[in-house]
Design brief:
Elements: H1 2-22, E1 26-39, E2 44-60, E3 66-71, E4 76-81, E5 85-90, E6 96-101, H2 115-129, E7 140-143, E8 147-152, E9 158-160, E10 180-185, H3 186-205
Parallel strand pairs: 1-5, 2-3, 9-10
Antiparallel strand pairs: 1-2, 3-4, 5-8, 6-7, 6-10
Helix pairs in contact: 2-3
Length: about 210
């Protein structure tokens, strides 16, 4: 009887320890121009010169803070990943901007965009370019080159990298709206502003 009790206690302890450890997850999406050699064990990223855009994932199962050594042709930087969650590490020499996207919002059959809404949208994008109104509370992000930012504590969230087109996403198995964050390059934001300005000018001429 004592053996069974002791065995059950040991099993319970192991389950508790396993559950505690399984919650210690740090996921890092690395955004790269060209390609990179990534070593999770050594916690290093070595960026190679090249064209195109690449995303790679790093995963760490530890409650301890992690320090990633990023090496590029321009700099060598230590990047801290202090707590559990999902991070974006910008290994490019260009700032990236992102925000939460509600893909679960109901769609309407007819969408009317007024001049006021167009101008409001342009102003909001310009503020993002200037790094204004950026906060975790607003769920928007302004990530400078060779830095990282924690996006969410939910490591099962979806992060859409710059230059990827995504307009919808399926709901989760339990019917909930997925947690999605969309990121853009400065170039993409500027092009969007230019397109919206054209739409404004075209409407003004009518």
């Amino acid at each position: 009887m004592r053996f069974c009790t002791l065995t059950n206690y040991c099993l319970f302890t192991l389950i508790v320890l396993f559950t505690a450890c399984s919650g210690n997850e740090k996921k890092v999406m690395v955004l790269i121009k060209g390609d990179a050699e990534i070593d999770e064990k050594a916690k290093t990223i070595i960026v190679k010169n090249g064209v195109g855009n690449t995303e790679k994932q790093m995963n760490f199962s530890t409650s301890d803070a992690v320090t990633i050594q990023l090496t590029t042709s321009e700099t060598k930087t230590a990047i801290a990943v202090p707590e559990n969650g999902y991070y974006v590490l910008n290994a490019k020499n260009d700032t990236i901007i992102g925000s939460y996207q509600n893909y679960g919002a109901p769609a309407t059959s007819t969408v009317i965009i007024t001049q006021a809404k167009l101008k409001q949208g342009i102003d909001s994008l310009k503020q993002l370019l200037e790094g204004k109104n950026i906060s975790a509370t607003n769920r928007n992000y302004f990530i400078l080159p060779y830095t990282a930012a924690k996006i969410t504590s939910n490591t099962n969230a979806t992060i859409v990298a710059p230059y990827h087109q995504m307009t919808s996403i399926t709901t989760t198995e339990d019917g909930k709206t997925p947690e999605v964050y969309r990121f853009w390059s400065i170039k993409e934001i500027r092009q969007t502003i230019a397109d919206r300005v054209k739409d404004t000018l075209s409407s003004d001429k009518k």
